[in-house]
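User: Fold both of these, please.

Assistant: Here is the first one.
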Amino acid sequence: MQAVGTHPHPNTMLTPARPRTQHQRVLHTAVLRAEMLRVSLMTTIYHDQRLDLVDGFTEDYAPLSLFARTPVTWDGITYNSAAAAVAASRFVLPATRKLLQRTVTPVEAWRKGSHLAAWGDNAHELHLPERVDQVQEVPYWREHRQFQAMKAVLEARFAAPALRELLLSTGDALLVARDEHHELDWGCCSCPSHATTPGGNRYGRYLMSLRAALRPSQPRGWVRVACIGHSPEKLPAGSADWVREELHRVAARLTREYRMQVAISGGARGSDLWWAQAAHAQGAAVWMYQPHTRQSARWDEADQAEHQHVTALADRVTALPGTYNAGCMAARSRWMVRDADLVVAVLDSRIFSGASYEAVQTARLDRPVILIDPHTGQASRLNPQPR
C-alpha cells in the first residue's frame, strides 16, 4: 500500500481529507499502452498532488479487479475469479458452469460466458474444446439476476480478511473499474473505440456500496456531489442571482452536515461554474469534467475568464478527447452522474427535454437529487425512483 505522504501511482491516487496540500500544477496525460497505438484518451490536470481516486485497479489495488485471480466460492463451486463466478451465474446447468470454472483466465471466462449465451441452444455449433450438450440461461438474468449474482459473489469474495482490509483502505475514494476489455456497463474501457464513451462503472459502484456496508459506523452523507443545470440564457429572467445564492446555501449545508468533500462540475457557463465556486468557498475539492478539450474557445471574454478562474482553482480538470460533437455533452453529463453520490439539479420545472433533464432523470434511478427550480424559487430533495 502507498504510505501516507508519498506520491502514489497516477492511477491509484488517494488523498486525505482537507486541508489540501499546496497547489502545484501537474500535467498528466493518460495514454494507452504501445499496443493500443498510443492513442491519447483524455488530458487531466491535477492541481493537487493527491486525489481521492482509484482510476483502474492496478499495482497495489490489482486484487480489487473483477478480473483478478482471487478464488471465490459461489453456489457450491469454487471459481478462479469473481468474473468467472458471475459469468457462470448466467447458466442453469452445472455442466455449463463447470466449463467456466475450468477456463484458464478470468477474462476468458467472462468472454466465454457471453459467447455461450449469445449462441443459446445452438451449443452444438460452438467451436470450443469443451462440449456442452445444452445451454440454458437463467430466466431474467439480463434484467436483474446478474446484479443479484454480482452482489452475492462480491460479498463472498470480500469475506476474505486481506481483500476486505484492502477495500477498506481506500477510504472514501472514488473507485473506477477501468480496463481494456470493452466492458461498458460494469466497467470503463480505455480502448480507442470507447475513448469518448464513459462506462457505467457498475462494478466500481458495487465495490463502494460494499465498502460502506463493511463500516456501518461511518457517518451518513454524500462525498461527491455533481451539479447539472441550464445555461444562463435558459434561466427565467432575473433568477440568476437567486440560483447563485441557493447553490452557496446548498454547498454550505452539504459540506457542514453531509460530508461533501468533492464538487463535480461540468465546466459549462452558469450553474456548473457557479457550483464549483460555491463548493470551493466551503473548502471542498473541485473536479471539472469537460465535454471536449476546447470547451470555452467560442465563449465571450467574460465567460472565458470565469472558466479560466475555475480551472485554476480546481483540483482535477479532465476532458473527453477531441473537439465538440453531437454526443459529447450528453456523454459528459452521464460521466458526472456516474461518479456522484448525489446530484444538484438547476432545472426549470416547465422544461422536460434536453441533456440536463435527461441526465437528472438517469440520476434519479439510484441516487437522490436536490432540485433547485428557478421558476418556482424553491429547492427540494427528490428521492431515487428506480424503474
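And the second sequence with its predicted structure:
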Amino acid sequence: MPPYFRRRSSYNFKTQFIPSTPDPSGKQKLNTMEQRTSHRAFALRNSHASLPATVPAAADSLRPKPHLTRRYETQYIKQNGDIGFMTRVAPAQPVYESTCAAIARGTLIDTEYGPMAIEDLSPGIHVKTETNGMQELLWRGQTLLIHGVPNQSPEMGTTIRVSSDRFGFDRPSRPLMLGPKARVVMNNHEGGLGLQGIRELIDGENVVSIQPPTPIEVFHIAFAKQEVVAASGVLIESYHPGRKLDKMISREALATLMGLFPHMTSIDEFGPQIYPRLDRREHMNAV
C-alpha cells in the first residue's frame, strides 16, 4: 500500500494528504491553523442548514412592509398674489396620487399666449377652458412616474398613449400622452355628459398603456372651480377631489390632502363637480 492515500475533505473541499502509517517525526502533520480555519468556515456555511425551511418565510411575513411615499410638488397663488412653491412628501395612495397624475409632460394646453406645454404653465396664467372661457390658473401639481417601483400601484408606473383622431377628427390632433389618473369628457347613455377615467378606455390599439423606460413627470391643474380644458383637442377635467370625499377618508388623510393645496382652507372651496363620474359601462363616446 502506498505511504499516502488521498481523501477529499467534506468541509473545505481541499485535497489533503493523510499518512497511512504513524509519522513519529511529525513533519507531515496538517497545518493546525488551516485545519481550525476550515472547521470554522464549515460551521459558518452550515449554521442555517439545521433551521426549518419555514423560518425565513415566517420571518418575512412578520417583517412590516415599507410605507411607500411619493414627492408632490406644487405651485399656487398666494393671498397676496405672489406665486408660492411647495414640495411635500405624502403617501403613495390614490387619494393623493390623483392630484397630480393626469397630464404627461409635453402635453399642449391652450392659454392666453397660445398653446403651452403643461410643464411651462404657472399660476396666474389664463388658460382657455371649454366651460367658461379664459380662467386664471390657481394651482399646478406634479409628481414623478417610475416604472417597476416595488409595492406601488401598477398603474402609477404607466402612462396612457392616445393615438391621433381617436375621439374624432383632430381629437387629439397628434398622439397624446396622459397620466393614469386623467378623466376625459364623454357622452353617457342618457345623452348627458360625464367624466370617464382614461384607463377604462384602454383598448390595446388606439388607447394603450405604456411603461416608460425612464421616469416621467405628470401634472394636474386647478382653477377657482372645476373646469374642462382641451389637451391637443381632447377634453379633460381639471382637478377635483370628488363628491363627499371628506366623508370617505379620515381627518388625518383629509388634512394631508389639503396640505397639497396651501391656497385653500377647506375642501368645500373646490365647489361642485362639473360632470358626474362614469363607470366603465356608462360611457358611449367622447365629446
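The chain has four helices and 19 strands.
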